[in-house]
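Let us begin with a simple case.
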Amino acid sequence: MAPGFQSLLSGGDPRSLGRVDEVITTVLDDPGSCRELLDCLYGEDEIVRMRAADGLEKVAATQPGIVEPFLPELLGPVARIDQPSVKWHLAQIFGEVELGEADRQRATALVEGYLEDSRDWIVITCSMTTLTGFAASDAELRERLVPVLRLHLDSDRKAIAKRASKMLAELGETS
């Protein structure tokens, strides 16, 4: 019997993605196994949660339809997981899947909260990217987002300042 996703995603160097590619391949070949990958987000092991979130994001980037049935869960209990690597991958997922109007509003509010509350530079940059994508077709969000992006231009963290500048340019704003 093949090892389960929990086993494949655990252990090793915590800075590596371990065997995430194997899990992604399995989910892409057998979309029904996405449930098992999602369940890995609820475990106690922070490394497994990070790798599972990464795997879900990569599946969503390749075949968003596999992840879309799980949007209510991603916008609900998964969104309450207080771990930066889960948050930044969720922000990315929301930018890659097809969202209905209600889900788009929930995802926007969630990611705006990440941008406002997080101290993690990756969460901040991923949130800026996703919100900029949403703002391209949402004038109200754009009005809220542009001033926030301008504030981030002065960040002492270069990755944040550069992303803010890039996102302003994508919105046709000068930095």
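The second case is a distinct protein. As before, the sequence precedes its structure tokens.
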Amino acid sequence: MRKNYLEGPRLWLRAVEPEDLELLYTMENDPETWDVSNFNVPYSRYVLRQYIESSACDVFADRQLRLMIACRDGGAVAGTVDITDFSPLHARGEVGISIRREYRGRGLATEALDLLCDYAFGFLHLNQLVAHIAVDNEASLRLFASCGFVQCGVLKEWWRAADGFKDVALLQRLR
């Protein structure tokens, strides 16, 4: 029997659908996430619609993969999980995850990140995943540590934030 890497006990990871446009618009334009993204202006619905329409949903073609974190109980979307900066040559990618406020604290991020790692290592045959996390983001540091990521360095003053520059922990998980 073949394993379905994208299904867990409480959620599944699925491709982005056109119906996700408004949710993505809200999530991408949440000022709370601006400190941890590399985008410096709001996303328009037009740009997000283009992204959805042009994505092949193939990490090898797009060099990135965005998956929606959908709850089994009703199908509501709890957030997104991504592989970005994908390098087929080096068999690695960077991981990012965003959980909507009303779904935080339920263990869904842990389940989603575990599923993504299983998929990346077991199906895509990646060798490693990395994550950049602000050193003061204790919840994210705990999340990634609980999923097998190990801190392998600190990048000083790596991200500009509203109150100055932030140090960022570099975390890595090897297959």
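The chain has a mean pLDDT of 91. Residues 68 and 101 are 15 Å apart (CA to CA).
Keep these points in mind for the review questions at the end of the chapter.
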